[in-house]
Automatic annotation (TrEMBL):
CDD domains: YjgF_YER057c_UK114_like_1. InterPro entries: Endoribo_LPSP/chorism_mut-like (IPR013813), RutC-like_sf (IPR035959). Pfam families: YjgF_endoribonc (PF14588). It comes from the Eukaryota. Transmembrane segments: none annotated. It comes from Hemiselmis andersenii (Cryptophyte alga). Residues 10-147 form the Endoribonuclease L-PSP/chorismate mutase-like domain. This is Endoribonuclease L-PSP/chorismate mutase-like domain-containing protein.
C-alpha cells in the first residue's frame, strides 16, 4: 500500500485549497514559534472573505449544515497552514489542538458533532497525524455573523538548514 500525500488525499476528496482570505482584523492568519504553527480562527468564508454560513446552530442551521460550515473552516485552516509550511503540507507532523466555536441558541448542545466537520477533515487528510485534542463550545455570536469558527495548533517539521541555505543561495 503506497503512502498518499496530503495533496493527493485532498484531490481524492475533490477539495481544492482556495486562495487565503484576508484577515478580518488586525492580526496574522498564522504565526509560528519553533515547530508549532498557530492558525488563527477560520470562519466559513470564500477567498474574498465573504461569510457563506451565517446565523446560529439550533435556529438557522441544523447539525448537518453547521458540520459543512466547520468543514469549510477546516479547508480555510489548511489553506493558511499550507502557506505557513512554505507550500508543503508534508511538513505537518501532528495536528496538536483544535478549538471550535459554534454560534448557537442557548438550548443547542451538539457542538462536538458540528466541529467534527473540521476534525474529520484533518484525519482524512493527515491520517493519524490529524488526530488531535479538541475543545468545542457554544458562544453567543461570532465575527461577521459566522455560524462556526475553528482554530488550530499544528506541529511541523523544521526546514533543514541545508535546504534553507541552498534556497537562500538560489539553489533548489
Amino acid at each position: 500500500m503506497s503512502h498518499k500525500t496530503a495533496e493527493e488525499k485532498l484531490r481524492r476528496l475533490d477539495i481544492e485549497l482556495p486562495t487565503p482570505a484576508p484577515p478580518g482584523g488586525s492580526y496574522c492568519q498564522f504565526t509560528t514559534t519553533g515547530n508549532l504553527v498557530y492558525v488563527a480562527g477560520q470562519t466559513p468564508v470564500d477567498s474574498e472573505g465573504t461569510i457563506l454560513f451565517k446565523g446560529k446552530c439550533g435556529a438557522d442551521h441544523d447539525v448537518a449544515s453547521a458540520y459543512k460550515a466547520a468543514t469549510l473552516c477546516g479547508i480555510n485552516l489548511l489553506t493558511n497552514l499550507k502557506v505557513a509550511c512554505g507550500g508543503d503540507l508534508e511538513r505537518v507532523e501532528k495536528v496538536v489542538k483544535v478549538n471550535g466555536y459554534c454560534a448557537c441558541t442557548p438550548d443547542f448542545t451538539e457542538h462536538p458533532k458540528v466541529i467534527n466537520g473540521a476534525s474529520d477533515l484533518f484525519v482524512e487528510v493527515f491520517g493519524e497525524k490529524g488526530r488531535h485534542a479538541r475543545t468545542a463550545i457554544g458562544v453567543q455570536s461570532l465575527p461577521f455573523g459566522a455560524v462556526v469558527e475553528v482554530e488550530a495548533i499544528v506541529q511541523i517539521k523544521p526546514v533543514s538548514k541545508r535546504a534553507s541555505l541552498g534556497s537562500s543561495l538560489g539553489f533548489s
